[in-house]
Amino acid sequence: MNTHPQFTWDDLQFFLAVARTGHLSAAARQLRTSHATVSRRIDRLEFTLKVKLFERNARGYILTPVGQRFVETAERIEGETERLQADISSGATAQRGVVRLSAPEGFSNFFFTERLPAFTQQCPAISLELVTIQQIMSLSRKEADVAVTLDPPKAGPYFSEKILDYSLHVYGARSYLAASRPIATRDDLLAHPFIGYIEDMIFNPGLDYLGDVHRGIKPAFQSSSIFAQLTATRSGLGLCVLPHFIASRYPELEIVLPQATELRRSYCLVCHRDLRDVPRIRSVINYIETTVRANAAAFVRNPRAD
């Protein structure tokens, strides 16, 4: 009689949760179980496999080299399991679970969250986690399942596609512009205070706008938050490069040199290739693609509408 313990798919779920979060407590919340249960499952899996998957230290659970390789195997099993569940379930049942979406602050706060009620009506069994912190989320470590980004990965096991372009312009509050020196050329911009991102915290080259407007511009006020930049601009602190789909909401803002200072950027949608066809991931991707493209006109300024 074989009494050698065998690991189960449940054990792999516990392993992946700890690998992705780095902490027992976070994994326990994700799996809706206890800290002790997660610890026990990880210990059992290591005992069964007779390998050390994690280094335990004050920072949490860090994958060993063996553990890092095992993540790839576990994720392939995860993907196949979810595809199998999709095949044997109805469409509504298959579209169930948690999806973590990483997206820029501007896109999230000024476009996507306003359209969440329609998403929840279409996919009521999907729980969406929206991450807007100013950093690049690691798709390889599954810190995010899907990402909207300005700079898709150039290599690796990822599915990536451009979903739309958007325009940006230099804006100022009408009250500020009325009380300040006139602006007729790009060089005139140098006489005005600018608002921008903190230079050494720009996590994406696509957000480095000021050099594209004029190489001589140095920001007088810097913030990692586009919302803070917007508020400072509306308050009359100075000029700022803002996306059209955000700034056009505020009639107190006016474009400066509309033809000479227009910039273009693109949003791309990225996910790990193994997750692309998982039903709940596919539902989120489809919704983002459909909603963005249905509202594409709002992202690019039409000069004839002025």
Automatic annotation (TrEMBL):
Stored Gene3D superfamilies: 3.40.190.290, Winged helix-like DNA-binding domain superfamily/Winged helix DNA-binding domain
Boundaries of every HTH lysR-type domain copy: 7-64
Keywords (A to Z) from UniProt: DNA-binding, Transcription, Transcription regulation
InterPro entries the UniProt entry points to: LysR-type_TF_proteobact-type (IPR058163), LysR_HTH_N (IPR000847), LysR_subst-bd (IPR005119), WH-like_DNA-bd_sf (IPR036388), WH_DNA-bd_sf (IPR036390)
Pfam families: HTH_1, LysR_substrate
Keyword DNA-binding in record: yes
Family, similarity comment: Belongs to the LysR transcriptional regulatory family.
Name by which UniProt lists this protein: LysR family transcriptional regulator
Organism of this sequence: Shinella pollutisoli
